[in-house]
Design a protein that fits this description.
single chain, mainly alpha, 2 domains, 3-stranded antiparallel β-sheet, two-stranded antiparallel ribbon, 8 helices, 5 strands, about 10% strand
């Protein structure tokens, strides 16, 4: 079977908002929490800022009201309204900055190569969110049997938030979907094998084997009328 190809295309702002409104509150909450997790992990796990700057990543905040200007908002220190706010602290002076990713270089003097790397990886995170929304729009989700099986599995066997996505019927990535379907197929084969009755083989003596062999020879000779 040919695998489905995952195309990294970006949704427009209007498309993203339209699909977002189709999600249930529980689905929106899971996606927002996953965004927070991945954005925070990007800085804490890879240490992208490294030793080339005095600034240290402290926290990430997601503006859930970015598309609704009536709610509480997040801002850059320059006054610009933000959807993604990154908090940095100077390790020498202790000064705190609240920035959008595009202002790292302006306010914190982050070197250009690091900025490009940061922006590339953040774009990859956005691609992942858009893939989820596109697949949701197409109605992609696990069937009930696979869903029930997966929710009973050890969470450490799969990518973070896999079970949270499945629990609220959010689509997984193409790669994760194939991995889980294959794992479920192995589980089904094991279950089927376990249900098959065990046939106990009777141990044949040497005398019985000789008699069986002689019977085969006699049958063969008879067939040719020797």
């Amino acid at each position: 079977m040919k695998k489905e190809q995952s195309k990294k295309t970006v949704l427009s702002k209007e498309e993203r908002q339209r699909i977002w409104q189709l999600l249930t509150p529980a689905q929106q909450a899971v996606l927002n929490e996953h965004v927070r997790y991945r954005q925070t992990s990007l800085f804490t796990n890879s240490n992208l800022l490294g030793e080339s700057t005095d600034w240290e990543f402290v926290a990430y905040q997601l503006n859930e009201n970015y598309d609704n200007v009536q709610g509480k908002q997040l801002f850059c220190d320059c006054g610009r309204r933000l959807k993604h706010q990154y908090m940095l602290q100077n390790q020498t002076s202790g000064k705190m900055l609240k920035l959008g990713i595009s202002h790292f270089a302006d306010h914190a003097q982050i070197p250009e190569p690091i900025m490009r790397q940061l922006q590339t990886q953040i774009h990859q995170l956005n691609f992942g969110l858009d893939e989820t929304l596109r697949r949701y729009r197409r109605g992609v989700k696990l069937n009930p049997a696979v869903k029930a099986w997966l929710l009973a599995q050890d969470t450490h066997n799969y990518a973070p938030f896999t079970q949270e996505y499945v629990a609220v019927d959010l689509p997984l990535t193409v790669e994760d979907t194939y991995a889980i379907r294959n794992a479920f197929a192995r589980f089904e084969r094991q279950q089927l094998k376990a249900q098959q009755p065990v046939v106990k083989r009777t141990r044949r003596t040497k005398k019985v084997k000789q008699a069986e062999n002689q019977a085969k020879v006699d049958l063969y000779l008879k067939a040719f009328d020797w």
